[in-house]
Design goal:
alpha+beta; single chain; 102 residues
C-alpha cells in the first residue's frame, strides 16, 4: 500500500478553517493531496473497496483534500476487477466445457 502526501494549488471553494490541521502555519493557498494506490486484501476486500475505505478515513480530518484513488492488482486475486475499473468494462459470465469454449 502506498500513501503519497504533497501540496496542491487550491483549485475551488473557500480555504479551510483556521486552527489545528495540515494548514496551520502554512497559509491557506495549498491543499493536501493524497494518492491512494492499494492492492486488495486477499479474501476480504478488493482494491476498489480499500480505496473507498481509505478515503472515508481521510475525509473527516482533511475535508478539502484532493484524493486520487488508483486501485491496482499484482496479477492475482482482484486483477480482473482492477482492470475493469481502470478500463471501464464489465464481467460476462459464461458456462463453458473448456478453455476453448468447447
Amino acid at each position: 500500500m502506498v500513501w503519497s502526501l504533497s501540496s496542491w494549488p487550491w483549485e475551488t471553494g473557500s480555504p479551510p478553517a483556521k486552527g489545528p490541521g495540515p494548514w496551520k502555519g502554512r497559509g491557506t493557498d495549498k491543499v493536501k493531496k493524497f494518492v491512494l494506490i492499494p492492492d486488495s486484501f486477499k479474501g476480504t476486500m478488493d482494491s476498489s473497496t480499500v480505496c473507498r475505505l481509505m478515503e472515508e478515513g481521510i475525509r473527516p480530518s482533511y475535508p478539502h483534500a484532493r484524493i486520487d484513488s488508483i486501485p491496482v492488482a499484482d496479477g492475482g486475486e482482484g486483477s480482473v476487477d482492477a482492470f475493469l475499473t481502470a478500463l471501464g468494462g464489465e464481467k460476462i459470465w459464461l458456462k463453458v466445457k473448456g478453455p476453448l469454449f468447447e
